[in-house]
Amino acid sequence: MAVDKHTARWRVVGHSVRGATHERAGVPNQDAIHWLPESSAGLPLILAVADGHGSHKSFRSETGARLAVETAAQVINDFLLGQAQTESLSVTKRAAEEWLPAALTRRWLAAVSAHLAAHPLVADELKLAPDIHGTSRSDAPSNPPVVYGTTILAAAVTTGFIIYLQLGDGEILTVSKEGAVTRPLSKDERLFANETTSLCSPDAWRDFRVCFQVVSNAPPSLILLCTDGYSNSFHDEQGFLKVGTDILDMIRADGLEMVNEHLASWLTESTYAGSGDDVTLGLILNQDEERHASVEHEV
Amino acid sequence: MSMRPGGELATRPLHFIWMADCSGSMDVDGKIQSLNTAIKEAIPNMQTVADENPNAQVLVRAIKFSSGAQWHVSQPTEVADFRWEDLTAEGVTDMGKALTMVAEQLRIPPMTERALPPVLVLISDGQPTDDYASGLKALMGEPWGRKAVRIAIAIGEDADTEVLQKFIGNPELKPLQANNPEALVKYIKWVSTAVLKSASSPASQTSDSATPGMNVPIPVLPESVPASADDVW
Fold it and tell me: Can you tell me the distance from the alpha carbon of B197 to that of B119, in angstroms, rounded to the nearest whole number?
């Protein structure tokens, strides 16, 4: 399919690294990242990241996170295809807020169920129960999705609107052409002290936060999605928010490819000198805005 | 391009606070000496746990309570630099005052949201003589007070386990009963190693857990030391 010259100027890059704590413990990276289209350019463009809980009960959260990002990208893609003929943005907005969380949760649960059917829990997994008071891994199968527990964050950019969607901890930031960093979603006070809402929770769809943003005169120049392993690696909030302006400046100075080449080393440095958790960062760049910004700058 | 985006990186602070009963009854049968010895012996274990996870910055403090309460180690101290000065015992059991003072330190700020859940270890041999309920209310009124790992050690049979249970706030976790020096050493070692290690982990827990205080998995409790003729408390 030919990609429209205008929409091709939206690009996505991203990377995920195993946490320093997980390296030391021999535990795999339980974050995941995925985007559509696979070419990483053109609209509609969908980016999803997920953070598997990694707790003793969620011992397949690596798989849960992978299923979450793949499911989110596919469900949102299906949604956008279904909305292609809808002229009313209000109708699309309501559908995004009401239908998407429920559909995503339902499809993730189905994916988990299918994985579990194909790969039943084995004695070895249950035997690996860590020494936790009052519980054991053998409790987990009473609520199978808990075994795969994960968060999910996604952003979808179309020519007319942008959807931001989040369940659980992690961060979504937008950076304006002028370099102002904002959060499109409101804060969820429950995400504190290691606790998170999750796709494996009962009625998880109720806990989603969704923002529907019409693309008007000033769409963001850059959108960032990251897991909390990244934000927790900074000494303070200002230091984390500075990532948005710094990356936009770097892209303007050296280009997106150069930034992409350095992502892995930046994230590795962050987990080792910071949280120790798995770290994942995805970037959506609006190169149209960047072209205008540089034209304005030259003028 | 060598510059990394964003501000200063930092490991996550993990505040560990000893809350020690220094009332006059702790002077009986060498309880206070046993507590001093147990905590001193635990420090190298804490340092080992901290060394194993350099992404958690373990910061230790201690507060003592008898007639009033006072910080014994007031500054959050890197575990590598932590030294234990012996406590002495006299006076009554103003536990409520100590709880209130700890609550003040768990406010945001000075605490930050990115910290790891704090660990509070309350050790007592008696019944509070002040309004402990107000102190507990102040503690539980702070987000980090509610989400702290709260462990209680009862020294001897006269300890008010009902109050200690309210401090823990989790019906699945009972106060640890230490009736002799051996048991006290064992429980102090458990909180300073297994519990500290668990609190250092960045693993997430679902927030819909029906059980309060499960944001940090509590390791399996050490086997209780059976009652014997050696029981001195």
Answer: 11
